[in-house]
Amino acid sequence: MHPVTTAHYLWLSAALLLIGTIGVLTRRNIVIILMSIELILNAVTINLIAFSKYLGQAHGQVFAIFVITVAVAEAAVGLGILIALFRNKETILADEVDLLKW
Amino acid sequence: MNTVFFLVFGLIVVVCAINVVVQRHPISSAISLIGVMGSLAIIYLQLGAEFMAAAQIIVYTGAVMVLFIFVIMLLNAGSEEGGKGPLTVRLLGVPLLLVFLGLLSYLIQRLFSDTGPVRFGDFKGGSPADVGRALFSTYLLPFEITSVLILIAILGAIVLARKELD
Prior knowledge:
The structure holds 2 protein chains of 2 kinds. By secondary structure, chain A is mostly helical. Chain A is built from 3 helices and no strands. Chain A has helices at 6-26, 30-55, 59-89. In chain A, helix 2 runs antiparallel to helix 3. Chain A is elongated. Chain B folds into 3 domains: 1-78, NADH-ubiquinone/plastoquinone oxidoreductase chain 6, subunit NuoJ (Four Helix Bundle (Hemerythrin (Met), subunit A), Up-down Bundle), CATH 1.20.120.1200; 86-113; 136-166. Chain B has helices spanning 2-22, 26-46, 50-75, 87-111, 128-136, 140-161. The interface between A and B is large, with 71 and 84 residues.
């Protein structure tokens, strides 16, 4: 059977990045937009760990830990903003939040 | 064996990720996202990153998804009816996406087509001990700055989500 190479993991990461990008661009629900951002950050993490293995060093995994930390902080602050938004505007659809629209 | 593992869990990751984007109701998306995170943990394990696999399960499926589902329940978010974006976005989006995908495939094919096979358990430099040693020697300053970042995120989330006091 064909062996799995590093390139396969890069393909998986690219697929996840693409799906996440489509989600961010097409969905209107802010919760799902935040989930799509998590998908994109996980695509980055796959890349970092795949290259960590490719180069035989642990440094890629350290950067993956930093990426996870930033992703979690982003989710917490994003959902906090979402709660504040819902309290003021009674909506969680991104296109109904047009306060700054000209 | 490795190929079968990669194919099965890679397929689960991609299908669940598509499901996250396609589902109308946020709860269905959240459940699919748990599937993505769980399968990704197996993928990390196959890449020899045991600590990352455990962290993925604990942090994402344990903490982040609970936070997401908690917020969905709190806001009582219903399913969203299909709204169409502007025409220019729909007309430009698909070609741009295809160009991006083509460019990405070309680069991966060009740069990484001759990488060696990845087998389960033949990576010796990525054990939790090695990660910890790198984290607390080479990357000590970024690690400490990360703790400040988390503190700021906690304070920001509390300030943003609390009720305004008169």
